[in-house]
Amino acid sequence: MTNLIYKGIFFTSQFHSVETLSYVENEFQLLDDDIVGVTYLKSGTHWMQEILGLIRHDGDPSWIQSLPVWERSPWIETIFGLKQALKYPPPRLLASHLPFHLFPKSFLHSKAKVICTVRNPKDVLVSFYYFSKCFEVYKDPGTMEEFMERFLSGKLPFCSWFDHVKGWMEMKDRPNVFFIAYEELQQDLRGSVERICRFLGKELNSRQIDSVVDNASFQKMKDKKMSNFSLVPESTFDHKKGTFMRKGISGDWKNHLTVAQSEHFDRVYQEKMQGVNVPFPWD
Ligand code: A3P
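That is the input. Now the predicted structure with adenosine-3'-5'-diphosphate docked in place:
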């Protein structure tokens, strides 16, 4: 599934290299007007990038409909994304799945704004499992049981979910870091967009916010080729095996984990999240 290890963390050599990861960590300069969407995989990365793109353009969907998401918001840690980021005219919209300890060190001295989107890890697990079935680079994920063990022990790309979330949680009191949950976006997308706008210092009128909400809906994104992964070639994503915009719901894990698996997950979760005294919507 992964064939590159950088500082003990798994990556794929098709998209990453030690040189790129090291450059991003140590030399990449974040700019004060950068906005970076940070996520663990399958936590709502593309959804947030859609929202941020719409907010940037005052709710006008033309921009998000004219470029694929990976060009609108390059993933800085990928070979392709770094090149895009370096030639991106500021202000930049960027994306990253990196855990905090591999994130650009320049962040600590910049006013770049980071929006961390987190999601119930059981739903992340299920989404990741089905994504892996289609994403050729990740190969066959095996059974849900096997995949869950790899998820819980952090033997999947981009470190363990637990380390990712705990590392970023330590940054939560910085004025340029904003946390939001996938579940909050789902429960109240309009209110969430308003909160994101306040964090970004962006004023949108009611009609513009309506347009952000409307254009970032699951159905609209599913139908848009610049947002729904259909432009990803078959050699990378097997569209016959599934779709990127799979279900877009919370709690789907209940349809995929047995009671015993869920209880085992809960035990590992309690143990690994000890000391994190922030309530999450799924707690
Ligand atoms: P599911 O597989 O549970 O459907 P990421 O962008 O981090 O890879 O996350 C992908 C997950 O976000 C998928 O979850 C996808 O369906 C969901 N998603 C993408 N856009 C969404 C939207 N507008 N509303 C709700 N969920 C969305």
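The radius of gyration is 18 Å.
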